[in-house]
Amino acid sequence: MKSITVKILITFALLVSTNVIAQEKLHIEGSTTVGPVADGFAEAFKSMYPDTAITVNKSGSGTGATALIDGRCDIATMSRFMKDTEFKDAVAKGVFPVAHAIAMDGICVVVHPSNPINALTTEQVRDIYIGKITNWKQLGGPDTQIVVISRDTESGTYDTFETFIMKSQKMASNVEYVNSNPQMFARVQSTSGAVGYVGFGFVKTGVKALTVNGVKPSVQTIISGQYSLSRPLYMFTNGYPKLGSMTHKFVTFHLTEKGQEVIEDKGFVALTNY
């Protein structure tokens, strides 16, 4: 009887150890903008591939790029394209970044819903961020000091905003910096005089997205490029992933019907939405 019990225990232990060994791991690091999409993909993969352990860390596009270069992640999520300096660092370490555009996004300039201002030009937004415009009454709004909020410099959204809006001009010393889209949303939602910017997927009740240069951000204006602050969202891998691998399945999931549903459910624009 004892020998039978021992055999059963040994068999069970072998099965458990085999399962652990067979478990595939996928680590994703980077953008807080792309984060909700990566979370949605990971959730879908749990039921499709239960033996795969997926972790998603949302620490900023710059951190994602560094993690890929240092070999600390399988996929770097980025809300901007990788910089030339990052490519050079990667190649120096034998890493060859490949970009996978997985969705479209629009950087939305947002204010508190009580603010009567509905539209600005990119020049007016820039004048706010460099400190030339400091009160909403200068734009036809209430006599209220403008509380200017920006993303931190590790953010891909910050880099894109700087390219589209700032045109190499320096932000004023009174600009506040936050680490993520949710923090930006919360700050603008709770501050009547605030202005900030978030990804399209983070525009919801509590903030108001402004029309920029006469175009309101929407699925149609973003995918067509009519909205001037439109941009692709990326997942980067070290080389093109092996066909059929879990990494390959993850970075091409946006091409499936389920992947497109996740992207749209998170408030972003599927590449197939023409």
What does this structure look like?
The protein is α/β, with parallel strands linked by helices. It folds into 2 domains: about 140 residues, D-Maltodextrin-Binding Protein, domain 2 (3-Layer(aba) Sandwich); about 120 residues, Periplasmic binding protein-like II (D-Maltodextrin-Binding Protein, domain 2, 3-Layer(aba) Sandwich), CATH 3.40.190. Helices cover about 35% and strands about 25% of the residues. Strands 1, 2, 3, 4, 6, 7, 8, 9 and 11 form a 9-stranded mixed β-sheet that branches. Strands 5-10 form a two-stranded parallel ribbon. Strand 6, helix 6 and strand 7 form a beta-alpha-beta unit. The termini are far apart.
